[in-house]
Amino acid sequence: MRPARPLSVMLLFALVLSAAACSGAPGPRAWAASVCTALTPWRTEIGSLTSRAQQQITVNTTPGQAKENLGRLFAGAQDASEKARAGVVKAGVPDVQNGKQIADGFTGALAGLRDAYGRAATGIEALATAPAKAFYAQVAKVVDQLNTDYKASSLDTTKLNSPELKQAFDEVPECR
User: Fold this and answer.
1) Would you state the pLDDT for residue 160?
2) Taking Cα atoms as reference points, which of 83, 169, 75 lies closest to residue 125?
3) In terms of residue numbers, what domain contains 38?
């Protein structure tokens, strides 16, 4: 009976488990492709909603119509941001240095954007539509706050530097 054998088996078992845990993380290219697949419809939707929101502000609508349309647009942006966030969560954690921090940065930024749009939708919903001049002044304040919240939620890519991911985002077709 050798005492080293059970220790060797335990060490081998621990090594196999740690290797199995590492191998489940997607590589940089796979992660970038998944993230871009989640973000592409979000970007399209946000662009469309932003364009429609700008039209609502410039088109001659009643305050009631503007309130309904802007509320619907901001709620749509909130939903689109949540779908994108969930898609990035589903992508997992990339197998790169600081992969968890990078994945958390992406999901955190999208959660912040989702929440900013939600606050804007709630802000619009709370506005009285009369008098019209006051309504539109308050809409401008809600939009200004949305812009501030949006900037605060932006992903700071300077802290999430990964040469492997940068290359993957530049190369995978899903990100073009």
Assistant:
1) 66
2) 75
3) 27-175
Q: Is 4 domain-assigned?
A: no
Token representation of residue 5: 């054998």
pLDDT in tens, 126-136: 999 999 999 99
* Contact indicator for 129, 55 with CB cutoff of 8 Å: no
DSSP summary character for residue 62: -
What is the spatial distance between Cα 126 and Cα 116, in angstroms, rounded to a whole number?
Answer: 15
Distance (Å, whole) CA 168 – CA 60: 46
- Residue 42 lies inside a defined structural domain of this protein: yes
CA distances from 119 to 19, 77, 122, 134, 149 (A): 44, 11, 5, 19, 9
Task: Enter the DSSP assignment of 16.
Answer: H
Cβ atoms within 10 Å of 168's Cβ, excluding its own:
22
Could you give the number of structural domains in the chain?
Answer: 1
Over the Cα atoms of the chain, what is R_g?
A: 23
Structure tokens at 132: 């019209």
154 is written with which tokens?
Answer: 């932006």
- Tell me the pTM: 0.82
Phi, psi (deg, nearest 5) at residue 120: -65, -40
How far, in Å, CA of 11 to CA of 118, rounded? 50
The CA distance from 57 to 59, in Å, is 6
Helix (H) or strand (E) holding 131: none
In a domain, 20, yes or no: no
